[in-house]
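Explain the record.
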Amino acid sequence: MKYRCARKFDPVFVMLVVAALLLAQPSHATVEELAALSLEDLMNVEVTSASKYTQTASEAPSAVTVVSRDDIRRFGWRNLADVLAAQRGFHTYYDRSYHYLGVRGFAPPGDYNNRIQFLVNGMRLNDNIYDSVMAGESFPLDLDLVERIEIIRGPGASMYGGNALFGVINLITRSGESIGRAELAADVGSQNAVRLRASTGGQSGELNWLVSASGFADQGGRYEFPDVAPGRMSPEGGDADRAERVFARMQFGDWYGQLIHSDRRKHRPGGQWGSIFDDPSLVERDGYTVGELGGRKTVGRQQELDFRFFAGEYRYDSAAPMDYSAGGGAYMINRDQQGGNWWGSEVKWTSAAWAGQKWVAGMTYVKNNRQFMRNVDDDGTIYDPVTDLSSDRYGLFAQDEISLSDATTLMLGLRHDVVENRERFTSPRLALVHHLNNDHTVKLLYGSAFRTPNVYERFYPNVGTPSLKHEAMKTLEVVWEGRLDSQTRATISLYGYTMDDTVAYDLTSRMNVNSPAMAGNGGEFEVERRWSNGALLRGSYSAQFLRQDGQRPDNAPTGIFQILGGLPMGPRGMFASLETRGMTMRKTGSGTSAVEGYVLTNATLTWHPPGSLWEWSASLYNLFDKRFDDPAAADPQLIDAGLSRDRFSQDGRSFRLKAVARF
């Protein structure tokens, strides 16, 4: 399927506007201000997500990437999907509603990102209907509030339980003093997109606080979908997007609390699910409200007790315009509604009291108060029986970090989970970390993980299969991390994994089924160089080979590359960056076709004059206006209507202008 977007874009005009903004006032930046992180900082950056306590990235029992706030700002990344698409082993795809993630070759169209665990300051975000979080505009946290993102690759079940198969992604937010009295941000972009954010924060004695509210609106474009309605364009506003987010975080001494609230409404063009193609009433709305309270008690100098209490709610409601005239009916709005709420707690004990060892042990309990699903027409017709469930789960975990010598550490982790149907799972992790010298580290990693089918996969009426088996994963990985010289570092990772009983939608039975085993193996290579004047260059390549029944699955590229470069230039305080990424061809769900590989380039200019309250940036995305497609998930309603869709075409060139003021 190809579509055409009816929009006008003048890159010359945009670049003139950018130049005018960037040259509006003089700048006095220093070299030190331009260099965000030195290579030494990168090699010794601390992470908390791999073991649930602080350790350097080189000590962590995983292949780790840390994305800084400066990286996000300088490369013009607008949402979490933009960030992850620039990291080795990841790719993203979009179906004009949500952005999905592919990791190490695994990316079945229609998958809901439910094999990665997403955290904000260690608080779980995954909902209790799909076990997922989407990475685009529906992600509940504004990216401007992030201090760093910790990407922990590989099975994380020994620490985090089910659904952490391919990794854990933890967004650490900024502190109140980094915001100051007030911070205002605004940007405009293609398709009349507008973003606004107002944040305030500060530090007063032991009290650190941050409050932020933001909004986003995009009028969308007009598109042609010849597979559904040849020669007809979707209506104005048929691809519109709107979201509001609120975030608050407070810390007083050893006590803290945080709250996240979001609401997103997306108009979805293209006649999905048998809806009327050119009716703008197809709207999906989803949102989160998640919060927690926690604290830490230090016992002596070598032991800590951490505890947290959390609660959350997820909401989804879609309104799809349907034409029932062929069956003697009339125009009707069909509503698909899901929602859930939960609460729970975690207690964790960390101890270094035993010489040469560091222990962490704890327990987690989650109570799903409600897991609700139904599908009805506005006239009250119920097509599927209402499903209203409740459940609970708990887990016990422990990890021992044993120092075998000054250069070698052995980590043994184990977690035991009891899930909704009282199934029990034990997830081990083994990591051997050896420092060859001060500059080179080798890690040998083994882990297993599981994922129980979520309530949508098991119980959604007429599709769910209650008897689905759990998914099981085993991974073996070898990682080398080293510093080639004072300005250059490199990482090489070789891995292999197996996945049994992967849950997937079967077009023949029109039900969710356990599919045949998958086997994946590959390698990731990354090298980065940082110069003393603040310039940087990073390149990565991921070779990934995934097989199921001897065939490569849908949407599984064999190669992905990313190249990122940045250079201080022009007036002092100005920084120019260029991001190029691409991938090889991918099979589509038709089984007989594929979408071509592509290469995209994004460019960003930022300008933060020293001593100025203002920061400016301008970005061009898909700089060379490359036209490319992403595979589409199977749509049984379209198939029943005799139509075929196996791909969604993606946007061409777009732009964004952004200003941030701090007071």
